[in-house]
């Protein structure tokens, strides 16, 4: 009985009439709170949908995307659309696909296409904008034959994925393909180059990218084999559209309004039959037109054009890479060290000049590029020690001698040129460098003339590229550099 009374008090909020009167008021308050929360969530969802619709309308291809998506809805109709099936052969199986001939036949019979060529053109537009993807190959076009194609998932349509174009996402995708270790997912040449470039550009967060790629690869391995094949091809088609191979024409970067204006026929100028043209030569008006056109072409050639998106992407990647090492951006400051750009303290600059007790941030920056390594005096010294151990220290010595040659007074140039040639490139050189035959012949011809500061320019570039491609990469992978990192 005592427990029942406690339960009654807990439910009624007290005994007597007060408890009875408080029940309806609390229930009405809670219901009004739920109603207000639902209303606010619906308003927020509506504002998000309106914002997303406005962003889609701002895209230059929004009109053609809407037309293609309405056609795609008819294509994917279960009753009247194109037949999607699983094709089985002796050694393989292709799920959820259809042939290009079936797609062109459906478009010819269900649209206003006049012939098979026009139907194939409409199908190729669907593929060029990423709504249809090829099962094999990288060409975003449809052929009227027995080659297989798939529909792209709506989540990856170009009208719904303008914000998912980060370089980190592309790096995760490429890294995941290397982890899956399948022949059909092997990276092509341009994708391997993109992966190496992204690894250098995103070196500060590559561990996170690798962990995310591992997690996605584990999830992919747990899926059904046929479903995994479809998802892999859809993801590959998405990146073929947004990170195309070199030389490919990308449809989503073309402004259709400008394209339509360029396709309009140019109206010929109405000229009267009695227009005076002197016999034997052109009129002054006609003779001036090529000159004006040539001047405009010269001005266009001298005008430098940089794509704003590429410049912004490069600037953003630079600041992300150097955010932990540059005091101007706000990073790289050791403990209890003031920012030299804000205060008058020069302690930070002095730490960058020390040849002993090198900070860890300086050693990490050596891995950015060979220019960062050679710009740091301590880095150049450590690189020289490692080259001497690898019996290739003469390469760096020759490159440094050529750099110093450009800063010498004119009276000392001839003597220094002869010394460099006798030390590194001559037939009896004491520290010969390994250069190709054409390079050695070019240097020999330059030595026959009057000596100048740029007599070894070809050999200097050859040796620098050799250090950049071979020696520098081996230095970063060596135990010597790893010990330097561990000792910081």
UniProtKB/TrEMBL annotation:
It comes from the Eukaryota. InterPro entries: DEP_dom, G-protein_gamma-like_dom, GGL_sf, RGS, RGS6/7/9/11, RGS6/7/9/11_DHEX_sf, RGS_DHEX, RGS_sf. Residues 1-60 are annotated as: Disordered. Gene3D superfamilies: 1.10.1240.60, Regulator of G-protein Signalling 4, domain 2, Transducin (heterotrimeric G protein), gamma chain, Winged helix-like DNA-binding domain superfamily/Winged helix DNA-binding domain. GO terms for biological process: G protein-coupled receptor signaling pathway; intracellular signal transduction; negative regulation of signal transduction; regulation of G protein-coupled receptor signaling pathway. SUPFAM superfamilies: Regulator of G-protein signaling, RGS (SSF48097), Transducin (heterotrimeric G protein), gamma chain (SSF48670), Winged helix' DNA-binding domain (SSF46785). One of its GO terms (cellular component) is cytoplasm. Residues 78-153 form the DEP domain. One of its GO terms (molecular function) is GTPase activator activity. Residues 23-59 have a biased composition (Low complexity). Keywords: Signal transduction inhibitor. Signal peptide: none annotated. Residues 13-22 have a biased composition (Gly residues). Residues 369-485 form the RGS domain. This is RGS domain-containing protein. It comes from Macrostomum lignano. The lineage of its organism: Eukaryota, Metazoa, Spiralia, Lophotrochozoa, Platyhelminthes.
């Amino acid at each position: 009985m005592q427990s029942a009374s406690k339960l009654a008090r807990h439910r009624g909020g007290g005994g007597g009439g007060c408890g009875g009167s408080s029940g309806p008021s609390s229930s009405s308050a809670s219901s009004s709170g739920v109603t207000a929360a639902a209303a606010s969530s619906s308003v927020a969802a509506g504002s998000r949908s309106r914002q997303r619709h406005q962003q889609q309308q701002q895209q230059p291809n929004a009109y053609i995307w809407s037309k293609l998506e309405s056609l795609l809805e008819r294509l994917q109709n279960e009753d009247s659309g194109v037949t999607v099936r699983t094709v089985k052969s002796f050694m393989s199986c292709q799920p959820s696909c259809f042939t290009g001939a079936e797609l062109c036949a459906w478009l010819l019979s269900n649209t206003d296409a006049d012939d098979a060529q026009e139907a194939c053109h409409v199908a190729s537009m669907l593929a060029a904008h990423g709504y249809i993807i090829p099962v094999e190959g990288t060409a975003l076009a449809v052929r009227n034959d027995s080659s297989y194609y798939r529909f792209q998932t709506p989540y990856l349509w170009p009208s719904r994925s303008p914000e998912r174009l980060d370089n980190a996402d592309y790096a995760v995708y490429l890294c995941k393909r290397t982890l899956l270790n399948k022949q059909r997912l092997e990276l092509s040449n341009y994708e391997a180059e993109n992966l190496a470039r992204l690894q250098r550009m995103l070196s500060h967060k590559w561990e996170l990218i690798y962990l995310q790629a591992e997690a996605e690869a584990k999830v992919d391995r747990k899926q059904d084999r046929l479903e995994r094949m479809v998802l892999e091809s859809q993801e590959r088609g998405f990146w073929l559209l947004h990170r195309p191979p070199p030389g490919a024409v990308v449809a989503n970067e073309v402004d259709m309004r400008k394209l339509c204006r360029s396709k309009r026929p140019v109206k010929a100028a109405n000229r009267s039959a009695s227009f005076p043209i002197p016999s034997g030569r052109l009129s002054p008006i006609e003779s001036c037109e090529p000159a004006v056109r040539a001047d405009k072409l010269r001005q266009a050639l001298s005008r430098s054009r940089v794509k704003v998106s590429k410049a912004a992407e490069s600037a953003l990647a630079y600041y992300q890479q150097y955010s932990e090492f540059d005091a101007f951006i706000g990073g790289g400051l050791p403990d209890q060290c003031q920012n030299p750009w804000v205060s008058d303290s020069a302690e930070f600059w002095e730490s960058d000049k020390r040849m002993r007790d090198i900070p860890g941030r300086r050693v990490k920056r050596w891995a950015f590029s060979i220019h960062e390594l050679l710009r740091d005096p301590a880095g150049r010294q450590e690189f020289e020690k490692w080259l001497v151990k690898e019996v290739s220290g003469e390469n760096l010595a020759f490159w440094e001698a050529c750099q110093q040659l450009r800063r010498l007074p004119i009276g000392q140039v001839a003597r220094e040129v002869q010394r460099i040639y006798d030390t590194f490139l001559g037939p009896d050189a004491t520290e010969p460098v390994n250069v190709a035959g054409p390079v050695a012949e070019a240097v020999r011809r330059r030595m026959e003339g009057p000596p100048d500061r740029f007599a070894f320019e070809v050999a200097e570039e050859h040796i620098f590229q050799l250090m950049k491609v071979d020696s520098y990469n081996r230095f970063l992978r060596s135990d010597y550099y790893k010990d330097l990192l561990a000792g910081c």
